[in-house]
Every structure is written in C-alpha cells, then in structure tokens.
Amino acid sequence: MTTLALALAITAAQILLGLAVFCAFLRMAWGPRAQDRVLGLDTFYTNVMLLLLTFGIQTGRTLYLEAAVIIALLGFVGTVALAKFLMRGEVIE
What we know:
86% of the residues lie in helices and 0% in strands. With 93 residues, it is mainly alpha-helical. It comes from Sphingomonas molluscorum.
C-alpha cells in the first residue's frame, strides 16, 4: 500500500468520524429520553476516541494515543455511572 493511499484512507476516515461525532452530538442534545442521551454520549466519546487515534496514526505522535486511552476509561466509567443512576436513582449506595 502506498503512502498516498494510506493518507487518503486516513483522511476519509477522519471525515466520516467527524460526521459520526456530529450525529452523536445531535442525539445527545435532542434525544427524546434519557436513555437515548446516554447512548448518544457513549457513541460520542467512542467516535472522538477513534478520531484521536486516526490523528495519532497520521501524525505519529503518542500524545493522541494517550488521550484516546484516557477518554476511553473516563467514558466507560461515565456510562456505567449514568446507567446506574437511571436504573436506581442514585450512583453511590
């Protein structure tokens, strides 16, 4: 695979991930129920994490990869906390 083809594939992936981030933000902002908003938040942080990973691949810097790992960890904990809050009404028992 040539370098040009790889660069074009990464750029196309970044554009599509940007559109996915926008759609997830709309679901997060205008979701009819709280469960839809949590699902939008989960999709939002996953797409942002993947977008950072593509930036890291494109530039070759590890800072983007470390930021993606932090977003993944915090996003998972946030999703679990919101799901627990929606099911029981409290986060800490």
